[in-house]
Design goal:
The protein has 206 residues and is an alpha/beta fold. The chain has one domain (12-190, 197-205): 5'-nuclease (Rossmann fold, 3-Layer(aba) Sandwich), CATH 3.40.50. It has helices at 15-29, 35-50, 71-76, 80-92, 118-133, 148-156, 176-181, 188-194, 196-202, and strands spanning 7-14, 31-33, 57-68, 96-101, 103-107, 110-114, 137-141, 160-165, 184-187, 203-205. Strands 4-3-1-7-8-9 form a 6-stranded parallel β-sheet, sandwiched between helices. It has a two-stranded antiparallel ribbon with strand order 2-10. The protein is globular. The protein starts with 6 loop residues before the first strand and ends with a strand.
């Protein structure tokens, strides 16, 4: 009878990690992630693994966290158009965007780009929203070891934590600690290798 109840899904995207997915897909296949298709796919995956009717599963909230250059820096680096184009796809899919400014520090070895505080903000928001929204499932699109404790804390709220990763370049960049802490770890690359049609479904041509 429990499976007849509607279930809520919160999706939280590590923007730096997501950018690496798109870079690898672009370099290897001349593709980028189709966010609308991915967000249709997530409830299907959960329904399959949890044996729940997909019609009972709803992404009720989604958030994206990333560091971003100030406008003059982005313009000088010719990033404004691509950033706005990507932001349009986030807005069209009702994804709430959270940005902090990037800083560039000059050192003896050149310029270092500092993305300070994003991971902490991501973790605090995800925990707080899960606590108050009472998500049944939280999907973390990330591979960062720093989120291991976040996954553990979310489980303490009796929330099913799903780690969704995609490593098209086969870099092995997903933290093993984070993978082991999640209730369920789904690696999309493994799925596309078994079903090549899935790559076309989840991506758009550049």
């Amino acid at each position: 009878m429990a499976n007849l109840e509607n279930r809520s899904i919160g999706v939280f995207i590590d923007g730096g990690y997501f950018a690496k997915i798109n870079e690898a897909l672009h370099d290897k296949f001349n593709l980028n992630v189709n966010i609308k298709a991915l967000f249709r796919f997530i409830p299907e995956l959960i329904g399959k693994f949890e044996e729940i009717d997909v019609k009972r599963l709803f992404i009720t909230e989604s958030h994206y966290y990333r560091g971003r250059y100030r406008v003059n820096d982005a313009q000088s680096k010719h990033l404004l158009f691509s950033e706005r184009k990507f932001e349009d796809s986030l807005i069209e899919n009702d994804i709430i965007i959270h940005y902090k400014h990037l800083r560039e520090v000059q050192g003896s070895r050149g310029t270092t780009v500092i993305e300070k505080g994003i991971d902490t903000w991501f973790a605090l928001d995800t925990y707080e929203m899960t606590l108050y929204r009472d998500f049944d499932y939280v999907v973390l699109i990330s591979g960062d070891a720093d989120h291991e404790m976040l996954a553990r804390k979310l489980k303490a709220l009796k929330t099913h934590v799903i780690l969704l990763t995609w490593d098209p370049a086969d870099t092995g960049s997903t933290s093993m600690l984070l993978s082991e802490e999640a209730c369920t770890h789904i690696e999309i690359k493994q799925m596309t290798e078994k079903d090549p049609g899935l790559l076309k479904r989840l991506c758009i041509q550049i």
